[in-house]
Amino acid sequence: MVGYRWVMNTRRKGEDGSALRRGWTTGACATAATKAALTALLTGDFPDPVTITLPKGETPSFALARENLKGGVASAAIVKDAGDDPDVTHGATVWVEVSRGTADSGIAFRAGKGVGTITKPGLPVPVGEAAINPVPRQMMTEVASEVCTAHSTAPDMVITVGVENGQELAAQTWNPRLGIVGGLSILGTTGIVHPFSCSAWIHSIYRGVDVARAEGYERIIAATGSTSEDAARALRDVPETALIDMGDFAGGLLKYLRQNPVPNLTLAGGFAKMVKLAQGSLDLHSARSQVDFDWLADLVADAEIDIVKAIQEANTAAEALEISKDKALGLEDQIAQKARQTVLETLRGAPVAVELLVINRAGKVVARDG
Description:
Strand order of the largest sheet: 4-5-6-10-7
Number of helices: 12
Radius of gyration: 22 Å
Distance between the termini: 30 Å
Largest sheet: 5 strands, mixed
Shape: globular
Number of strands: 18
Helix content: 25-40%
CATH architecture of the largest domain: 3-Layer(aba) Sandwich
């Protein structure tokens, strides 16, 4: 079994046992559309299909749904395929328009129709910017730089990203509550949408624990996502097969470990996910558990009243974390302690030594307990 990575693969199963098909993020679609449009702007021809390289090295190809080149502006559109994931943006048309910017302006991003604008702090993109997350921005910047270099042109371009019917689709997401106005966010950290099946994912977690036990591993790392996993691996050197892609299913993992223990568990997750765990939630998905900002404010009740109020009224958990760190309140340490306590209570005395890591958006460990 050595060398096989549990859960983070293409073999997830549906309820009927069939393989679930992967899909592509809006960020991957926007990157491919950027490459096609910019290539046409510089050469007059649209590559179709257009191939890009994702952060993990995959090289998918995308067919163009629409293309246009006129008056120094090129645009291309791609229909998002989310695979077998129940994604609200599955089938949505992601379009990109590229035009030349002023000399030495670099790459500038604009929100087209259907893509939102950030109006509240606490998100990974500043207020006033298009709701295009950091990794998609990086992917589009890199592909634009590559195309420009290949054609001996300075990468001074304006990239406008839109989604057809994006404002209507955004009403089905948390964007309005987060202060993202006017449409969807362009998302993704790997470019790939991994299909979501609750029972399949949990059973894959079980099999991952079984493999770790069979191999006699002293420690497993369970993480909510790739960023948290990478941070944990920087601290703990474990084999590939000792990595458990827990996702949002903390309860599924811990209840299985209760009956099938391993000597040591490192559980790692982003601040918001760990807040939910600290509150006692075992399902960390945004549709089934929420950060309680009143509860967070109570943890720092001894601070100045305006600071307590700022945390209580924070737009996101990340914003609350930044307030805490700025004022040295130690909120992240309390979350690590309380989240670990939830883990221990769920394990009910099982012989598992628990280490809890809280990870920030930059992939750094900001708190550690156990």
